[in-house]
Structure formats: C-alpha cells, structure tokens
UniProtKB/TrEMBL annotation:
<keyword id="KW-0067">ATP-binding</keyword>
<feature type="binding site">
    <location>
        <position position="86"/>
    </location>
    <ligand>
        <name>substrate</name>
    </ligand>
</feature>
<keyword id="KW-0028">Amino-acid biosynthesis</keyword>
<dbReference type="GO" id="GO:0005829">
    <property type="term" value="C:cytosol"/>
</dbReference>
<dbReference type="GO" id="GO:0009423">
    <property type="term" value="P:chorismate biosynthetic process"/>
</dbReference>
<dbReference type="GO" id="GO:0005524">
    <property type="term" value="F:ATP binding"/>
</dbReference>
<feature type="binding site">
    <location>
        <begin position="18"/>
        <end position="23"/>
    </location>
    <ligand>
        <name>ATP</name>
    </ligand>
</feature>
<keyword id="KW-0963">Cytoplasm</keyword>
<keyword id="KW-0057">Aromatic amino acid biosynthesis</keyword>
<dbReference type="InterPro" id="IPR023000">
    <property type="entry name" value="Shikimate_kinase_CS"/>
</dbReference>
<feature type="binding site">
    <location>
        <position position="158"/>
    </location>
    <ligand>
        <name>ATP</name>
    </ligand>
</feature>
<feature type="binding site">
    <location>
        <position position="64"/>
    </location>
    <ligand>
        <name>substrate</name>
    </ligand>
</feature>
<dbReference type="InterPro" id="IPR000623">
    <property type="entry name" value="Shikimate_kinase/TSH1"/>
</dbReference>
<keyword id="KW-0418">Kinase</keyword>
<protein>
    <recommendedName>
        <fullName>Shikimate kinase</fullName>
        <ecNumber>2.7.1.71</ecNumber>
    </recommendedName>
</protein>
<keyword id="KW-0479">Metal-binding</keyword>
<keyword id="KW-0460">Magnesium</keyword>
C-alpha cells in the first residue's frame, strides 16, 4: 500500500526502544542532506505534552491512537528520514502502510538496550522492571519488526555513525 500522494520517505527506522532510531535517524538525515521526522516528537507536539504524561493522563490506548495518526500523516507527507516509536508496528494498518518502503529494523541486544534507555528520556513502558518489560516487549514484537523490514541492521558494538553507515549500505542496490 503506497501513500496516496506518491510521496515516500527515504528511510524508515523501526525497532525497540534503545535501538537508536532517533539518534541514527538524525545522523542519516544529515548524511543524506534531507529532513528528519520522528513520530514521537509529532505526538508530543499534537498532545502538547511529553509522552510519559500522555501515558499517565490518558493511558496507552489513547497514545496508540495518536501514534497511528502521526504515522499516517508522516507517511503521507514526509520524503526524508522517518523514525517510528518502538510500538508503532503493533498496529496492523501501520504494518500494511510500510509494505514496499525502505524500512530498516535496527536490532539491539537486551543488555545494550537497557543500558541505553537508562541514559535517556523516560519510557513509560519500561518504568518498572525495564529488563523484564523489554524482554517481553521484544518477544511480542520481533516478528513484527522482521515482517515490515526490507533490511535488518545490528547495532551491537557500533557507534551511531557506524550504524548510519550500515543502514546506507543495507539500502544500497546490490549487483546481482
Ligand atoms: N549505537 C549506539 N551506541 C551507543 N549508544 C547509543 C547508540 N545508539 C543510540 N545510543 C544512545 O542510546 C539512547 C537511546 O537512543 P535513541 O536514539 O533515543 O533510541 P530509540 O529512538 O530507538 O529508542 C541515547 O542516549 C543514545 O545516545
Ligand atoms: O516501544 C514503545 O512502545 C514506545 C517507544 C517509545 O519510542 P522509542 O522506541 O523511540 O523509544 C515511545 O514511542 C513510547 O515510549 C512507547
Ligand atoms: Mg526514539
């Protein structure tokens, strides 16, 4: 399913929290000389508050509805680099919209992810027992990330710059 306008993103990054989607997405946009968009930032702008407050005030189903709308709007209009929030692929409509697009799954180990998210903005789903929550979340979502991905890039022992290089390499058409 393609965007009605024919606009399509140059790269879409998916993967669990801590994979580096936001960090690597910004680098990729710089590298490609294009714009960067992050559905989490779009949701915060639409709601007028940070993601943890949306979860606490209105609950996860409301957050997911905002996320669905943010993903749809971005896929309809953005031709640069797009990072999705880690849970966006749980929506079947979103997965259908991603078919045929240059989607890259940034993979990450439990160890790295938990270390990285501990350094960063709060993620409400990982607020209590992050290791256990992350493991369960990944068990549920790994097949979904894999289903939507045109390429998988592992982030272990790679700097964000190295990951950006690997993403560009993975999307490069290869000679048969
Ligand atoms: N390849 C990497 N190596 C080390 N730290 C990283 C790497 N990628 C991201 N980080 C760090 O991990 C944290 C989470 O990264 P972020 O880009 O917000 O992930 P995501 O958007 O996938 O949840 C940030 O503090 C970021 O600087
Ligand atoms: O995995 C998830 O369900 C979520 C991931 C977060 O984004 P990142 O994947 O960028 O951390 C953010 O959308 C929200 O906290 C929910
Ligand atoms: Mg992010």
């Amino acid at each position: 399913m393609t965007a009605p306008t024919g606009v399509r993103p140059a790269v879409v990054l998916v993967g669990p929290p801590g994979a580096g989607k936001t960090t690597v997405g910004r680098l990729l946009a710089e590298r490609l000389g294009t714009t960067y968009r992050d559905t989490d930032a779009d949701i915060e702008a639409a709601a007028g508050k940070p993601i943890p407050e949306i979860f606490y005030d209105e609950g996860e189903p409301h957050f997911r509805a905002l996320e669905r709308a943010a993903v749809t709007a971005a896929l309809d209009s953005h031709d640069g680099v797009l990072s999705l929030g880690g849970g966006a692929v749980m929506d079947p409509g979103t997965r259908a919209r991603l078919a045929g697009l240059p989607v890259v799954f940034l993979d990450v180990t439990l160890h790295d992810a938990v270390h990285r998210v501990g350094l960063d903005a709060p993620r409400p789903l990982l607020a209590v027992n992050p290791r256990q929550q992350w493991r369960e979340l990944m068990e549920q979502r790994r097949p979904l990330y894999t289903e939507v991905a045109a390429a998988v890039v592992t982030t272990a022992e790679r700097t964000p710059q190295d990951v950006a290089d690997a993403v560009l390499d993975a999307l490069e058409p290869k000679d048969a």
